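SAMPLE LOG
Freezer: B-3
Tube label: C17
Construct: single chain, 304 aa
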Amino acid sequence: MRLVLSLFLMVMSGWLSAPALAQEYDVTDIVAASDTFLADPSETNRKTLMAALEDYTGEATVQSVNAYVRLLMHDATGGSDENLIESATRATAHLEPVADILPKQYLEARFLAAVAQFNHAPDPELMLEMAHVEGRARAFTDEIGEHPDWAETLKWKADAWGMAMGAYFESTRRRPPSRDEIQTILASYGADVETRNALAERSLDEDGLPFCPGKMIQRPAMRYPAGQANRGRIGAVVMHFDLDPAGKVVNPTVRASVPEGVFDEKSTRVVGKWRFKPENKNAVGVSCRLERTNVVIPLVFTIR
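STRUCTURE (predicted):
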């Protein structure tokens, strides 16, 4: 059973000009094969480029990395899991020694390899691999200490895929990795979700008020979308929203979804009607607040 009907392509960065990459290696064959593949991305030219990259034993260069980027952009939308497994796995290995220099390209290749491997042959170990991608993307900051957009996007994509994988294994009665195993991996990158959530709940607003304890009233309940179009699909959605001063959900948006676009409209419409109920309504505005930004919740869709 194939979990996802189509792969999305992470937006790979443009052609590189990083001076920190090796320059002294002979990449003539790679450049020639890459240019030919760019002009005509046929299967024959793809195989020629893969062969040139396989024969190359030097360190990562601007030309070799650009060649892998071209391959990944092609293979991620080409419909062949086998091709994407080949190119993404090799790209990951090639980029690993320079992962600190090119974290975006490295993590996106690693992510695409896990996706393709799962679609080809679902294995619970791939949930752990996805947790590594998520953790590293969550923890990454650039040279000025900022968390870049690509890392923010990738962490939610990896989170959604991890949830969708877990739903698939549960539906097929195969045991997925435990929550503790996933959390341990995330924590190893300093990206433990539970700790971050606890810190967010204790954060103070400009008036010095923490967020009120309570619970989200999930009415209407989230149900699997009716209709033939979605029947049998398993997936996950990462929803982002704010809470207004009355505890009502505002600005619900989808941060990531698997399969992309399938459950988005349903999730946005239903979550937009939810509200947060405090344990003690008399404490609102006195010792705590309901207003909150950047709330994220996971939603899993499966047939039982």
